[in-house]
Amino acid sequence: MTDVATRPTTVKAGPRPDDYVAAAESLIPLIEAESSKIEEAGRLTERVVDALVASGIPWLLVPKDLGGGGGSYVEELGVLEAISYADASTGWSVAAYTVSPALAGIGLPADGLAKLYGGEEKTLISGFGIPTGGTARKVEGGYELTGARMPFGSGTLHTTRVNYPVRVVDDNGEPMFLENGEPDVRTAYPPTSTVTFHDNWNVSGLRGSGSGDYEVAAQFIEEDFIYTLDMSRRRKEPQYLWGYWGITYIFHIGFGLGVLKRAVAEVSKIVEGKARGPIPSLGDYDPFLTEYARHEAQYQAVRSYAYSLVAQVESDIEATGELSEINQARLGQLATWLHEVGGEIFDFAYHWAGSQPLRMPSALGRAFRDFKVAQNHLVVDRIWYPGFAKPIIKTWQG
Hints:
single chain; alpha+beta; 3-stranded antiparallel β-sheet; 12 strands
């Protein structure tokens, strides 16, 4: 376990960059150089965390009047693509850091967002998104939280606050429900100084994301740091109108694009002049070249569609003020399909690279292990395809 009793509640953020994607690309050499250490340690190195904080990248989606980038989700894709290309575990963690302010903006009061992000000292947040037993009971000035253990704390080892989804209960501890009959589930943001981390992230891939369990202690939390049901108290920026699922799909799409780019790049380099058995050079071998052309086209297709779709969804949300059913379905379809296509591309690259990705350190070998773990994430599971298909079918029926 990790003692975090002295963890600060904010970090000093670097100035807002003129170009967030360029800022992310400038960090690629450092992250690549640290990638083996990250995998071995099971967490980001302090050099990488310090560079990320200094870059201002974690606050891309924070409104400009709070000192953030006020950025678009197209920019977010570019940032995640660059960082995930450098190292998948770092990309996964940065995805958590960058989307967390947008997720917070969905339900936090505007005053709460200002306390978290207004000024040079800002919070760094990540964590799991589904309640696992924690509850919140309304008291004067805020809520009493019960403690609970949360899984999949990606990036939380470096945070100053954590996501803590809870079920709201009454004074008798009974669950409370919304007008539509659904349970009243909210997200609170307790300081990391009240969290115990469990060293149980012993996995085959994405080791450096440090996605072990974290245990939140029972505590009081101010009303500003837990979701409100009062819509008049929330901010109305377009990035908050994507909803939980829309923002979550962006996380997986941006991450996937970067790791796939690494697969295509690495196999392109490895086969140049590489002999394999009786084949003197894979780079001149027609069966390999045929497969390469097919799989590289798949990569280009999914990347082009991703940027096109996200730009279209942003335009639609600015025009209508909401994420439509069809756009949510398209984003989910894309995130899932990208990971299917990605699996095929990685299998192709790994096979033709021969023994090279087996030998550590290997950028392709590490990316392969990391992507295979990401493929197993529930959000991109094939089980969701039927739900995506129904609204999409309607668009074809006229």
